[in-house]
Specification:
The protein contains 8 helices and 10 strands. The protein has helices at 10-16, 20-27, 64-76, 96-102, 120-126, 142-153, 203-221, 233-248, and strands at residues 2-6, 32-36, 50-51, 61-62, 84-93, 107-112, 117-118, 129-132, 188-189, 192-193. Bound molecules: adenine. Belongs to the RNA methyltransferase TrmD family.
Length: 255
């Protein structure tokens, strides 16, 4: 996959994607990442990329022209067509389902805004989709772009090894549930024991326990993700047993 990133801080993108799974994918050319700085396409001695907003108010707005020229240069750098995605809190919230779709693209161009935003006319004419990574405000789109790059890269063929396999991740398993808890050595610690079933060697029982924990966690923490009517009869039984155990433990009422 090729990703071009338009940003006033291309080094930020370069450095934040240089580690771990994504760093390795770049080294192996499974991800081709190229930064583009709109300042390089700005005119005048000051290479201005922003100006005051019409109508007044605080902050600065990114100018159309440097962004347009920069986008054009990025497009021309490769014949592969690419949608332009703008990272902003006004965008559609990113989900794992959308990440899976985007991960199938051969190429995309990410546009990162700074200041109060980008001239709306550039967005209207050049942007295919606006994406938010959550209902909070960052100082710019770079961190959000790095999040999106990470999420799509780890789904590329050959990026994860078997041990890192994405299939077990939260949202990726059957039904889009949260992941189950994980434990490693020691089996016994001052902070608690590893559940007996995980040490039993009974693979069917372990799989059932993990599925039940995923169901239970999703019910407790993200009930809106759980479409109970779509659960299999076996899943419903597991969840019901989880709930009964939860209530019997004298646990506080579910928030
Ligand atoms: N830029 C600033 N805040 C953002 C957010 N929440 N998501 C995506 N891009 C952003």
């Amino acid at each position: 996959m090729r990703i071009d990133v338009i940003s006033l801080f291309p080094e930020f993108i370069d450095q934040s994607t240089g580690f771990g799974v994504v760093g390795r994918a770049r080294e192996r050319a499974l991800l081709q990442l190229q930064g583009w700085n709109p300042r390089d396409y700005a005119s005048g001695n000051y290479r201005r990329v922003d100006d005051r907003p019409f109508g007044g108010g605080p902050g600065m707005v990114m100018l159309i022209e440097p962004l347009r020229a920069c986008l054009e240069a990025a497009r021309q750098a490769d014949p592969t067509p690419a949608p332009v995605l703008y990272l902003s809190p006004q965008g559609r919230p990113l989900t794992q389902a959308r990440v899976r779709e985007l991960a199938l693209l051969p190429r995309m161009i990410l546009l990162c805004g700074r200041y109060e935003g980008v001239d709306e006319r550039l967005l209207a004419h050049q942007v295919d989709e606006e994406i938010s990574i959550g209902d909070y405000v960052l100082s710019g789109g770079e961190l959000a772009a790095a999040v999106l790059i990470d999420a799509v890269t780890r789904l590329q063929e050959g990026v994860l090894n078997d041990a890192e396999s994405a299939a077990q991740d939260s949202f990726e398993g059957e039904g889009g549930l949260l992941d189950c808890p994980h434990f490693t050595h020691p089996a016994s610690h001052a902070w608690g024991e590893v559940p007996e079933v995980l040490r039993s060697g009974n693979h069917a029982a372990i799989a059932r326990w993990r599925r039940q924990q995923s169901l239970g966690r999703t019910w407790l923490r993200r009930p809106e993700l759980l479409d109970e009517s779509a659960l299999s009869p076996a899943d419903r039984k597991l969840l019901e047993a989880f709930r009964q155990e939860w209530a019997a433990d004298g646990s506080p009422a579910k928030p």
